[in-house]
């Protein structure tokens, strides 16, 4: 049973003084038979009272308001989590029976939200790919793994070319992005075959330089498999999400699981910095300023047009390459 100590720091720096910062945080890990939270310490600038509730999808949500004028706000979450390996689905059940079961549940309340398809211009093209990738005798489990491999092999992992506001059309045109983009594309593919799929936010805790997504919050998808339940699938790393993936929340998409979001009164300009570290030593809990001295420790998320322009620049490079090939 792996034990992980996780520190997740979110820092907002404002161009001027702001006040009445009202925020929602989704920083409380899921507690179930495969994940125990042995310690959770939450420190927020100004020590505001945090009210918590359970949302429609079973996530614990915190809400707070920091009313005093301030130019910096830091949310520091320290976790100790023990995970357990989950057994994998068996593949000896007749595929036809599993697909019939999925037809039976598609109008049931627990699954309806996870079957709703977001339309985008590339959907018909992706539908063709889904049919091409599918084998007649595949089980839903086998399909989920094949689709995971397709996203991993056909989308390039590039930080900075997308933001949380990037649309599916933009991701589809780029054929690139980060973990949240990979998860969204995989969910579209699963839902096209009426397999319920949901978005998962959390952390990847492998301490391996070969795994993508460390040093920041991570995202993957879960597919509902008959006679099994929800299976975590990580298309960013082409693997099953198991005891090395710590789950924070589940939902229809990123917007249901955003770790921190809010509004405030004051100047519009601000910078968001996020740092995540995973270790088995309590002494590693530190401050965001200390982490800033380590490479790749801070994930900068632009709130102006910088990140959006990175998408535009990437598209311009692709267009230039295409033009050169045509000449």
From TrEMBL:
Domain Transglutaminase-like: 171-237
A Pfam family matched in the record: Transglut_core
The name this protein goes by in its record: Transglutaminase family protein
Organism: Mucilaginibacter ginsenosidivorax
């Amino acid at each position: 049973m792996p034990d992980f100590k996780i520190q997740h720091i979110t820092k907002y720096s404002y161009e001027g003084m702001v006040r009445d910062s009202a925020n929602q945080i989704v920083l409380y890990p899921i507690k179930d038979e495969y994940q125990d939270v042995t310690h959770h310490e939450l420190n927020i600038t100004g020590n505001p009272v945090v009210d918590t509730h359970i949302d429609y999808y079973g996530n614990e949500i915190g809400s707070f308001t920091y009313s005093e004028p301030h130019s910096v706000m830091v949310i520091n979450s320290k976790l100790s989590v023990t995970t357990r390996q989950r057994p994998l689905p068996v593949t000896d059940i007749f595929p036809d029976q599993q697909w019939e079961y999925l037809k039976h549940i598609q109008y049931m309340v627990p699954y309806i939200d996870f079957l709703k398809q977001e339309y985008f211009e590339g959907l018909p093209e992706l539908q063709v790919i889904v049919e091409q990738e599918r084998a007649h005798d595949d089980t839903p489990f086998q399909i989920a793994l094949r689709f995971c491999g397709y996203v991993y092999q056909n989308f390039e992992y590039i930080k900075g070319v997308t933001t949380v506001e990037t649309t599916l059309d933009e991701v589809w045109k780029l054929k690139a992005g980060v973990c949240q983009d990979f998860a969204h594309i995989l969910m579209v593919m699963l839902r096209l075959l009426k397999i319920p799929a949901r978005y998962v936010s959390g952390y990847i805790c492998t301490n391996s330089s070969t795994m993508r997504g460390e040093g920041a919050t991570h995202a993957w998808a879960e597919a509902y498999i008959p006679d099994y339940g929800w299976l975590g699938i990580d298309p960013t790393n082409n693997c099953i999400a198991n005891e090395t993936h710590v789950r924070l929340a589940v939902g229809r998409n990123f917007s249901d699981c955003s770790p921190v979001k809010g509004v405030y009164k004051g100047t519009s300009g601000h910078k968001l910095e996020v740092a995540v570290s995973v270790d088995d030593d309590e002494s590693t809990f530190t401050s965001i300023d200390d982490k800033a001295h380590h490479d790749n420790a801070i994930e900068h998320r632009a709130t102006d047009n910088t990140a959006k322009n990175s998408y535009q620049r990437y598209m311009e490079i692709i267009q230039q390459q295409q033009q050169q090939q045509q000449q």
